[in-house]
Design brief:
Elements (H helix, E strand, L loop, with lengths): L22 E8 L10 H4 L1 E7 L5 E7 L13 H8 L4 E5 L11 H16 L5 E11 L1 H11 L1 H5 L10 E5 L7 H6 L25 E8 L4 H14 L5 E10 L2 H4 L7 H16 L1
Parallel strand pairs: 3-4, 3-5, 5-6, 6-7, 7-8
Antiparallel strand pairs: 1-2, 2-4
């Protein structure tokens, strides 16, 4: 399944529900007050909750869609969110502002604002605010990692990376994101590792992280993930783990999560269960 061995706790700490289990879906909740920051707030700064209809308190996962920080929508992640909810998770699927209409750091700040809002309101939807995870595919993985690695973003909202139970990145960008570089007039093949790169923080302490990338990933993306994992290992941080997912490409690693027997889903749920058990 994975190039590297990923030890996952398989004993359930929250229920796995049948595939046809009834779900509750609450759509288009605004996580920012309209008019507080620039254009696009009313259209983009919203999220959807997905959860089982029955049961008790649930760990929560914020899901950030991919799309290069220029495209994509939470509406493309409906089946992913439903599949995760059926594993006994409160899922918050998040929209955020996109470049070029919004420029750095709007999209990272939106991700932080969404986390802050969920931390305040998860309990209203049976979420356990002590166990809120962040996850995403591609650009969404980049956003999740920036919240988990760089204290600037959550700090604006009176929070800190340690308030995140765990980070899951699927083929996320580890250097400064190519859209941020493009906004600065820097070409895609010019690698930048500044304070806007998850790799920049590889030597610093962090919470649990699951880093997965595809066997047939996009150009340079697998290498970035390999370097990030190697740097974390060199820094002596076993709470960061991951590896290559065979049989997937850059798109399918994030888009096939709801498929029966998908190894990415198994790894994500195992990581969440283990973290909840030990947190």
């Amino acid at each position: 399944m994975f190039q590297n061995c990923i030890a996952l706790l398989v004993s359930a700490t929250f229920p796995c529900l049948p595939g046809a289990a009834e779900l509750v879906e609450v759509k288009n909740l605004a996580y920012r007050a309209e008019g507080t920051v620039g254009d696009g707030i009313a259209d983009f700064c919203k999220l959807d909750f997905y959860r089982p209809a029955e049961g008790g308190e649930l760990p929560c996962l914020l899901w950030f869609h991919g799309g290069g920080l220029t495209a994509g929508s939470k509406d493309e992640s409906v089946e992913t969110a439903r599949a995760l909810a059926r594993q006994g998770i409160l899922v918050a699927s998040v929209n955020y502002r996109l470049s070029p209409k919004a420029r750095y750091p709007a999209y990272i700040d939106d991700a932080a604002a969404a986390f802050a809002w969920v931390s305040q309101h998860a309990g209203e939807h049976r979420g356990d605010k002590a166990h809120i995870f962040v996850a995403g595919h591609s650009a969404g993985g980049y956003l999740a990692l920036m919240l988990g690695n760089d204290k600037r973003w959550l700090g604006k909202y009176g929070l800190k990376p340690a308030d995140i139970a765990g980070v899951i990145s699927l083929s996320g960008q580890m250097v400064t994101h190519f859209t941020i570089r493009a906004e600065r007039g820097i070409g895609n093949t010019t690698i930048v590792v500044d304070e806007d790169a998850p790799l920049h923080y590889a030597g610093q302490a962090c919470g649990p992280q699951l880093i997965l990338y595809a066997e047939q990933d996009m150009a340079m993306r697998a290498e970035e993930n390999i370097l990030y994992l190697a740097a974390r290992k060199e820094a002596g941080q076993p709470q960061v783990r991951g590896g290559m997912v065979k049989g997937h490409n850059h798109s399918s690693i994030g888009e096939n999560i709801s498929a029966a027997g998908d190894p990415v889903m198994k790894a994500m749920v195992g990581f969440i269960r283990e973290t909840v058990a030990h947190r």
